[in-house]
Amino acid sequence: MTSRQQWTLIAGVVMTAIFGVALAIKLRPQLDLLEIGSKAPGFDAMDLRTNRQVTVDDYRGKVVLLNIWATWCPPCRDEMPSMERLHKKLAGTDFRIAAVSVDGDVFYPAEKKGSTEIMAFAGQLGLTFDILHDQSGAIRRAYDIFGVPESFVIDRDGVIVKRIIGAADWDAPVNEALIRSLLDGAR
Question: Are 132 and 98 in contact (CB under 8 A)?
């Protein structure tokens, strides 16, 4: 190999490396996926019982089941009773359920439901935990939501310890044991 060929090869390798680093820097925000151990991203939603804006900060210091759902979603309806049973079992503790409806958000504008319809849905199921509404779709983007329902268990420090895509049996022994261990301070 001639000296010129060697320099051409070296220049090609260097340019490829520079391009690769630049591409990685550009794509990094898109590759920073939300996962177990991540800090729970912030969100703003309307608490439909109190008619006030709430954020993830309103739940700091608590163990939280953050559930993203919609009234038009049959699996969401199916899992809600188990969430209510768990909520009642753990009443009086630092456990909170924040169920955020995404009815009418930018991803499903045709499914537009207002607070009256969402609360009627919650009333039909006898739900007593926090019913929130995010019509902007911001929570979907912040939490990398693919569909509904999707849920996150968040510890007292605001760290995600479990993520479930799809409906879950929230008062099943495994889920209750996890939440009780987080309430007791175990990780």
Answer: yes
pLDDT of residue 114: 79
Continuous segment of H or E residues that includes residue 88: helix 74-89
Task: State the average pLDDT for the chain.
Answer: 87
pLDDT over 90 at 28, yes or no: no
N- to C-terminal Cα separation, the chain: 59
77 contacts: CB under 8 Å, gap ≥ 6? 71, 125
Is the per-residue pLDDT at 31 higher than 60?
A: no
Q: Is 142 helix (H, G, I), strand (E, B) or coil?
A: helix
Sign of torsion, CA 44 45 51 57? negative
